[in-house]
Amino acid sequence: MKKSWLRLIGLSTIVTMLTGCDPLLVLDPKGPQAQVQAKDIMLSIGIMSFIVLIVFVLLAYMLVKFRASKQSPDYKPPHIKGSTKVEIICVGIPVLIVAYLSFISVESNYKVESTPEKYKQEEPLIIYASTSNWKWHFSYPEEDIETVNYLYIPAERPIEFKLYSYGPITSFWIPQLGGQKYAMADMVNTLHLAADLPGEYMGRNANFNGKGFAENTFNVTAVTQDEFDDWVKEVKATAEPLTEEKFNTLLEPGHVGQSTYTGTHLTFLPAPEGENGGHQHGTSHIKDHASQQKDH
Amino acid sequence: MKIDQSLPLEYSTQQNQLNILGFWVFIGAEIMLFGTLFAGYFVLVDRTGNGPTGAEIFEITPVLFETFILLTSSFTIGLGIHAMRKGYTKAMIWFYVLTLVLGVVFISFEVYEFMHYIHVGASLQTSAFTAALLTTLGTHGAHVTFGVFWGMFIVYQLIQRGLTPETANKSFIFSLYWHFLDVVWIFIFSFIYLKGMV
Amino acid sequence: MEYFERFAIPHPSQAIYASMVAIGLTVIAIIVGLTYFKKWGYLWREWLTTVDHKRIGIMYLISALLMLFRGGADAIMMRAQMAVPDNTLLDAQHYNEIFTTHGTVMIIFMAMPFIMAFMNYIVPLQIGARDVAFPRLNALSFWLFFMGAMLLNISFVIGGSPDAGWTNYFPLANNEFSQSVGTNYYLFALQISGLGTLITGINMIVTILKMRAPGMTLMKMPMFTWSSLVANVIIVFAFPVLTVALTMGTFDRLFATNFFTTSDGGMDMLWANFFWVWGHPEVYILILPAFGIYSEIISTFSGRNLYGYKSMVGSMVIISFLSFLVWTHHFFTMGQGALTNSIFSITTMAIAVPTGVKIFNWLFTLWKGKIVFTTPMLYSMLFIPTFTIGGVTGVMLGMSAADYQYHNTMFLVAHFHMVIIPGVVFAMLAGLHYYWPKMFGFMLNEKIGKWTAWIIAISTLLAFMPMFVSGLDGQARRMYTYSASTGFGLWNMISFIGAIGLTIGFILLVYNVIYSIRYSPRNVGSDPWDARTLEWATPSPVPYYNFAKVPHVISTEALWDAKYHQHELFPEPYEKIHMPNNSGVPFLLGCIFFAWGFSFVFGMWIPTILTTIGIFICMAHRSLEKDPGHYVPVEKVKTTESKLRGSQL
């Protein structure tokens, strides 16, 4: 077991060296969820490299040993049907590997789908993250503020992102804090993340949603809880309120840069969850919105 | 074409056997087609938006008529095949004609049913539920309609050419198709209408 | 005026205008050429109306190669745009259209016809049949595929290309967000060619189950035939799902229904589910016949029988079954919860086991063999290591928690290219070199062939290995550009160099064909590779009736038995041979389907109705027609055979 970890560390150094100095974002986790995923990735790279190595060695051996040029011209290859023993090994070992990886995969999946163990005792911060072409709206219902295209979060506290979309399917992704999840028009997805350290992180929509997709990014700033509280206060003191009219102009397709508001759109346009769940509501906000757009 | 007298007429040549097996494989594909439509229907059945639910629009009378007619037509085409096996070409043609007439009556009922749905505000565009419902029913109805025309061509050939390995083969395959549509209808009746009305 | 505006390209560029001119000139050149050389009659009699499975196979092959270059041109444009940060070679919309058509063309109109080409050409020969079960339907299959391909390919000069990705996720693909008619083209091109594929599926299953030579039991079928059988069973069960999904998508776009909309109860997730219930089995439809070709080639050039025949068959059957149980892994991040993800994670990784069995069986086929490095063998030996890399990254992607990080990134793009290119494209190129002498009666140049193989293999690694890295560094797929600060530049530049290498490789392939047509010696004999299976028992090129006498088979390697174990392959006397008649109706029906699709794309209802009626008239004609076929008399068979065999021996 120890040896395999050594090999893993060796591998990760190789991967790191390959990229010059900066480690790859996904393999440079800054939160517990991303850590789980990075660990799984490195483990699977290790095991898979081992399998690749076996195949390469076997192939090289066969090709070197059994080339026609190395054999007498009258050599007649034998007729070999196959052997149960070999088959059992060829099935058995992969089954064991797959079983082991399945175990890890299932365990990790439950981990990333719940509040990080490390911060269980903390009260999670709930942020509604919704997309419209091609921007992100972040609503902080408890703080009663809303931002566009940037995100402030307290470090060392679990965050529950409630994801949904005004339009095409998008995917909320902050590689260094954890893997992505879809934001869709029809239901609200929950993504559990947390940042271990204050810092700046890259966030983006990872799922193709049309012309403005490449620039569909947002900045994430993780700060201490105190700094976060100060920021909230400052926003409440200085930002203008988010009116329904203002929000509808924000929803129009395009790029709008960053902005900050007091109040959230959740009060007049609730997220498609619970009673507002997509499958029961009739003509949705989007259609209203689309028809409004046509009127303009 | 070698004709093997020991086999029933519809199986008597190599090509006939290929045709029948090919049609069974085609029915396999059709099962997947309707299976997918049913899967889509079950996913969307409660997603009625502003439109009506199934319980609000389904009417038992035309559906019972449709079921009765289609089941009867399945029986009559079975009698047609029985007559074919016995070599009673005339009886066979009459049973086929009867089957097709029942098919036309079925389609008429279905057209009435669709008009009723549109009348009560459940058109193709109303909601995901109505779209799935009308598409599933419509696909079955289109199959029956196609079958009626196909059957007419077969009856014409039976009259013109009599019972040959080719016409027997075509008639037999058509009967498979017709029975299959009947089976699909039983599923529609049970899982769309009955389940929707409860 | 507004009516005609729909036919204009929504995002014109120099490249598109140049392509329009090029297409126009090519069409004129073809028409003039055919007229000048008086080849219209030849084209009509020998190709457009043919029902011969070999001719149809060759037409599939030509189409596949054409589409390979179409999709390849898309690829090189994408890689060029991505080669440096903040590039402005293409704008966002143009880039979106290009990656959409690249994916669609490569999967549906390149890889599919390539395997169809080999299935059509080889399967009947391998089982000792004289044609497929339904030759007329076979021609129809081809023309439906071909017209579907043409429909997609005219999109970029009339009305605009599809731009919602080859996965075409709704609601992005709906009218609101994809406004040109491009997505309509996608829906109808796939619908029409999908119908053709389904018909092929039925045709091939019946052919393989009912038309095998005497003595060839199921467990004595050559491996390529087995793989084709399994792939066609998957086709029959997977393609109807696509049919329904496409129909619903079409209704949403043309008739304003609410299947996949965001209002009135529509469900965008349903499309993704339907698409991948078809889409994942589709991958195995492509790769299993490719595996079959590798099995034939590796066994032939090791001079040995295929190791573990039974487990090869068993693993394919298991793969085909599992392929329907893994579709959710294409969207682990959709929020279906840890339990669902766990189940699909396990089924996904489980596929690695039968696939691994196949790899090991190939390796053990080499064992104690006498390995000859011909071009097809070289491709196969380059396939094993590169495919293994692609395959194991698939297992990594199958781990659902980690997939949250891989999903939608270049890592995924690298994975599926590293699977499909070595798995399918190398196999098709290997098969092309391997079966070329059977199809055309001369060999492709071995020296150029080997150079090509090495260049293509190394370029594949160069083009796609860097994507694993940039994916892990956070590069999402389908971005038309990125800033220099991301640090993706280096990796994308290496990919671009790899793409250039691939271009050179494929140009060399064409050069090889031209070179070999001119200089390659004819009279290579019926069995130039010292092969083992029945297709090599026919003369090359194959006479249209395939086998003069019905072969009798006692093992999986009928020809080997005949050559080295005194098995009498053709014990029967000459008999007259029944063959199907040619027909122009499949071609005509294909043309009508093209017009039908085109009318639908633009919502032109009167032509739609007329073409629909046309389709039914063709079907009615087929119902009433008497088509007894014809007999080739014994004398004619004898003279043909002595001419073909005599010139060789």
Automatic annotation (TrEMBL), chain A:
All residue ranges annotated as the Cytochrome oxidase subunit II copper A binding domain in the record: 122-234
UniProt superkingdom: Bacteria
Transmembrane region(s): 45-64, 85-106
InterPro entries referenced in this protein's UniProt entry, alphabetically: CcO_II, CcO_II-like_C, Cupredoxin, CuRO_UO_II, Cyt_c_oxidase_su2_TM_dom, Cyt_c_oxidase_su2_TM_sf, Cyt_o_ubiquinol_oxidase_su2, QoxA
Keywords annotated in UniProt: Cell membrane, Electron transport, Membrane, Oxidoreductase, Respiratory chain, Signal, Transmembrane, Transmembrane helix, Transport
PROSITE patterns: COX2_CUA, COX2_TM, PROKAR_LIPOPROTEIN
Membrane topology category: Multi-pass membrane protein
CDD domains named in the record: CuRO_UO_II
EC identifiers of the protein: 1.10.3.-
Subcellular localization: Cell membrane
Compositionally biased tracts (Basic and acidic residues): 285-296
UniProt cross-references to Gene3D superfamilies, sorted A to Z: 1.10.287.90, Cupredoxins - blue copper proteins (2.60.40.420)
Region (Disordered): 270-296
Domain Cytochrome oxidase subunit II transmembrane region profile: 17-116
Primary residence: membrane
Catalysed reactions, semicolon-separated: 2 a quinol + O2 = 2 a quinone + 2 H2O
Family in the record: Belongs to the cytochrome c oxidase subunit 2 family.
NCBIfam families documented for this protein: QOXA
Function: Catalyzes quinol oxidation with the concomitant reduction of oxygen to water. Subunit II transfers the electrons from a quinol to the binuclear center of the catalytic subunit I.
Name assigned to this protein: Quinol oxidase subunit 2
Organism of this sequence: Lysinibacillus boronitolerans JCM 21713 = 10a = NBRC 103108
TrEMBL record, chain B:
Residue ranges of every copy of the Heme-copper oxidase subunit III family profile domain listed in the record: 1-197
Localization annotation: Cell membrane
Keyword Transcription in annotation: no
Top EC group: oxidoreductase
Segments passing through the bilayer: 21-43, 63-81, 93-112, 132-159, 171-194
InterPro entries per the UniProt record, alphabetical: Cyt_c/ubiquinol_Oxase_su3 (IPR024791), Cyt_c_oxidase-like_su3 (IPR000298), Cyt_c_oxidase_su3-like_sf (IPR035973), Cyt_c_oxidase_su3_a-hlx (IPR013833), QoxC (IPR014246), Ubiquinol_oxase_su3_dom (IPR033946)
Superkingdom classification of source: Bacteria
Membrane topology category: Multi-pass membrane protein
Name by which UniProt lists this protein: Quinol oxidase subunit 3
Enzyme Commission number: 1.10.3.-
Catalysis performed (reactions): 2 a quinol + O2 = 2 a quinone + 2 H2O
Job description of the protein: Catalyzes quinol oxidation with the concomitant reduction of oxygen to water.
PANTHER family associated with the record: CYTOCHROME BO(3) UBIQUINOL OXIDASE SUBUNIT 3, CYTOCHROME C OXIDASE SUBUNIT III
Keywords: Cell membrane, Membrane, Oxidoreductase, Transmembrane, Transmembrane helix
Source organism: Lysinibacillus boronitolerans JCM 21713 = 10a = NBRC 103108
Cross-referenced Pfam families: COX3
Family as reported in the entry's similarity comment: Belongs to the cytochrome c oxidase subunit 3 family.
Automatic annotation (TrEMBL), chain C:
Pathway it works in: Energy metabolism; oxidative phosphorylation
InterPro entries hit by this protein: Cyt_c_oxase-like_su1_dom, Cyt_c_oxase-like_su1_sf, Cyt_C_Oxase_1, Cyt_c_Oxase_su1_BS, QoxB
Membrane topology: Multi-pass membrane protein
EC class name: oxidoreductase
Keyword Kinase assigned: no
Keyword DNA repair part of the UniProt annotation: no
Entry note: cofactor: Heme A3.
Assigned EC number: 1.10.3.-
Keyword terms of this UniProt record: Cell membrane, Copper, Electron transport, Heme, Hydrogen ion transport, Ion transport, Iron, Membrane, Metal-binding, Oxidoreductase, Respiratory chain, Transmembrane, Transmembrane helix, Transport
Catalysed conversion reaction: 2 a quinol + O2 = 2 a quinone + 2 H2O
Family the UniProt entry places it in: Belongs to the heme-copper respiratory oxidase family.
Listed name of the protein: Quinol oxidase subunit 1
